[in-house]
Amino acid sequence: MYKIHATNDFSELRYLQSLLDAKHIEYLTKDEHLMGLGAAAGQVPAHRCPMEVYIVRQDQLETAKKLVRRATAKVSIVLESWTCSHCGEELEGQFSACWKCSTYRYQPKGPNGPTTSDAAGPKRKAGPGATEKAG
Ligand SMILES: [Zn+2]
Biggest alpha carbon distance in the chain? Predict the structure, then answer.
């Protein structure tokens, strides 16, 4: 048997299992409280037990490892770091304002406040009293 993964995250384990199932890969899972029986089941909080995943066949090992990588890859947005335009302090992407001088990363647009949706370009006067004269 080949150990490919150990996790405390039950949802991650279930996801990995579903990936392995989809590829018809033989695997075994075991967790600590099953290995050291003696205490009544359910006594140990689930998050205290790393659950281990073993692959049975060596020829499926490589595929299984790829699936592990997929299962454990967390979707994370990496924010770019930025430099404060006011004081030049370098700041990590998760900050939206400079911790030193409180300058915002993104300056508010325009001094005129929110722009209403008036249409640009010439407007036709079409008041209630306007009449069109045919030339
Ligand atoms: Zn600053």
Answer: 103
Q: Tens of pLDDT along 68-118?
A: 998 888 655 567 889 999 999 999 888 889 999 999 987 665 555 444 445
Domain-wise residue ranges, the chain: 2-72, 77-111
Overall CATH class of domain 2-72: alpha beta
- Ligand 1 center–CA 91 separation, angstroms: 9
Q: Which residue has the tokens 């010439």?
A: 122
How much is the pLDDT for 39? 43
CA of 89 to the centre of ligand 1 (A): 5
Torsion angle of C-alpha atoms 66, 70, 73, 74, degrees rounded to 10: -170
**Cα of 114 to ligand 1 centre, how many Å?**
26
Q: Which fold has domain 77-111?
A: SH3 type barrels. (2.30.30)
Q: What pLDDT was estimated at residue 93?
A: 85
Compute, in angstroms, the gap from residue 38 CA to the centroid of ligand 1: 60
